[in-house]
Chromosome partitioning protein ParA (Echinicola pacifica), 259 residues
Amino acid sequence: MGKIVAIANQKGGVGKTTTAMNLAASLAVLEFKTLVIDADPQANTTSGLGQDPKEIENSIYECMVDGIEITSIIMKTDMEHLDLVPSHIDLVGAEVEMINLENREEKMRQVIGEVKDRYDFIIIDCSPSLGLITINALTAANSVIIPVQCEYFALEGLGKLLNTIKIIQTRLNPDLEIEGILLTMYDVRLRLSNQVVEEVKIHFKNMVFDTIIPRNVKLGESPSFGLPVIAFDAEGKGALAYLNLANEIAERNGLVKVN
């Protein structure tokens, strides 16, 4: 049965989508059967994996609101072992449409339930908010990865997210765990980056992944080619960092990794 991991932080620009698509691709390279779900109306994971969101007829939105089966919308990517559930702009309206539905916080859990035994990992890219879609993702997930950028105000809003996670653990998903806090956009040359790493590790200790994602040009370029960085610049620092993260997660979950 697949492990469902949400990538969440209500703060924008912290590397959620970059992490979702590149972690999923790296897990696939390690030969774990992986599904990435784009639950962000901006649909950047969808376009970053080579699909045009404007041409998407059905997305995770239709599954949650209209009851369309997720199996009918899963798309193959160019990578073996990696599948995609796409998003499009209509997901913005899902929160309004779902407001009066019974068990509205559990719609994504019900949708994913149809396929979770087909994959080793299911990665959910959440939108930069703590709205109903993100709450759905956290309710469906076994664990959550929180990307934190190595910049000023890095810890801003983190308390609010952790509080939301605690509420979800209490009311909706008692099994939800924090997989880890992931430091992103690290620049070894900047004293501030090093201070943030130190501060986050002091605050959160073992919750912080050993892997740190560097600020890297190729990580920014690869989505414009519709490719994860491991298919765009396999030997680069960005690709190796996400491969290390995938290995670290596999090890933490007691899974055999492929070298």
About this structure: The mean pLDDT is 90.
